[in-house]
Amino acid sequence: MIYITFLLSVQEADKAVEGGLFDFNATLPLMALQFLLLTVILNLLFYKPVSFILDERDEYIKNSLTTASSSLLKANELIKKHEKELATSRRQAQEIIKKSQQEAQQMVSIKVKEAQQEAEKLIAEAYEQLNIQKEKALRTLEMQVDTLSEKIKIKLLQS
User: Fold this and answer.
1) Gyration radius of the chain over CA positions
2) Which residues form a coiled coil (predicted)?
């Protein structure tokens, strides 16, 4: 019995030596095949769809950035165009205002000149009428002086 137990213990020792850390039997190629099969399955079921989705997302982001940058460029061009138009409009408005002020100034000058001429005309007419009245007054005074002097002369001669 000792022999059997010894034989069993030797067989167990052989098994222990065989089942070591690096045991190269049929399980190693099977594990390699299993790893390769799992890699192919994962590649087909997971990595390719995920990478396809990521590629689509990258393409969408690139397109969005391109569209946004072109829109920004267009917006900047429109802003510059409108700023130029606004500057032109402001210049034109200032020119119109300046022209209107000049026209108004000319109209005021003309009206002032007309008023001065009218005033001078009125003054000249008033002066002329005063001269006419003065002449009439002098004539009547002369006549009165003549009549008075005749009366004085007659009275002096009579006395």
Assistant:
1) 65
2) 72-151
Give 9's DSSP letter: H
Distance separating alpha carbons of residues 88 and 94, to the nearest angstrom? 10
Residue 108 domain-assigned (yes or no): yes
Q: Which two tokens mark 29?
A: 């190629």
∠ CA(137), CA(143), CA(145), 5° rounding? 100
Number of domains composing the chain: 1
pLDDT digits (tens, 9 = 90+) for 67-106: 999 999 999 999 999 999 999 999 999 999 999 999 999 9
| CA–CA separation, 9 and 14 (whole Å) | 9
Query: In whole angstroms, what is the distance from residue 76 CA to residue 13 CA?
Result: 85
The string of pLDDT tens digits covering residues 109-126 is 999 999 999 999 999 999
- Amino acid letter for position 53: I
- By residue range, what is the domain housing residue 46? 33-114
